[in-house]
Amino acid sequence: MKFLIFSDLDGTFLSYENYSFGNLKIFVNKIKHKTSIIFNTSKTFSEMLYINKRLNLNNPFIVENGACIFFPKEYFNYLDLKKNFFKYRGYLGYSLANNSLELIAEKISFLQEKFSFSFYNDLSDQKISKITNLSIEDVKRSKDRLFSNPIYWNDSLDQIPKFKSEIISLNEHFKIFDGGRFIHILEGYDKGEALKKFLEIIKPSLNYEFVTVSLGDSENDICMLESTDYSCIVKGKKDRISLKKKNKIYFSKTKAPDGWKESLESVFRMENKNF
Q: How confident is the model at residue 244, as a pLDDT?
């Protein structure tokens, strides 16, 4: 049996304050032969390449809140993948996004007359660095976006529910989530939908039983957390998120990055697995 681990990054695997993964590289190296770690994140393709390289991982990953699944080319040795996949920088991508980031921005930019907000890619590198504490090099990777353009909210907090209501009224397929520092608007996909599509794609090639585990800390992770056998909620800065499912849920006592290891060790104990 193998564990398929779907994990958010910021505030879950990476410290919310400084983006450090602490000593997790040692833990990842210890468990990676009995698990498959698939990061399911709001981060971009470029950011994920950089992070996986630092962790010595060559696994698939899901970017921009479920917009696209990227597989290393050598991951597949079956099926005719030409119909739904595209090649991108040495990977095979499967897109769940209906529209480009430019089209989404065009559809909602008129709301800037009612509310004060900015699109992520319209912010200067220096502004994003100040907001996020990212280095300028990390900011450049974060702006290399293919599918989505998050919103930086400049208006009062009590205007957010009204803004969300207006977004949903524009298109019933729009989904809007608070991701921590930014608001994310998605069309036709989310982290949960991407996780399900990932399993649908890989199942024909699997010759082993598996258990699915998800780890997250914020609102945009809920759909992913609801979609796995085990759900781990890493302690965050805000109020604890809640799920509809009632079993196999673990709430970490520590924040990221330590909460990530704590959560998985708890799952492994429940499954009577030692690494």
A: 96
CA 237 – CA 246 distance, rounded (Å): 23
Helix (H, G, I), strand (E, B) or coil at 169: helix
User: Other C-beta atoms within 10 Å of 90: how many?
Assistant: 10
Cα–Cα dist 144/63, whole Å: 12
Sequence-ordered list of residues with C-beta below 8 angstroms from that of 10, at least 6 positions apart, any chain:
16, 19, 41, 42, 43, 179, 180
Structural tokens at position 247: 């079993």
**39-88 pLDDT per residue, tens:** 999 999 999 999 999 999 999 999 999 999 999 988 876 555 556 789 99
- With a threshold of 0.90, does the pTM exceed it? yes
Q: For residue 16, what are its two tokens? A: 């919310």
Domains and CATH numbers, the chain: 2-96+190-270 (3.40.50.1000), 101-187 (3.30.980.20)
DSSP strands (E only) in the chain? 2-7, 35-39, 61-63, 68-72, 86-88, 91-95, 117-119, 151-153, 174-178, 183-187, 210-216, 230-235, 249-255
Q: Hey, what are 186's tokens?
A: 């998605």
Strands 91-95 and 86-88: antiparallel
CB 60 within 8 A of CB 70: yes
Residue pair 217/235 in contact by the 8 Å Cβ criterion: yes
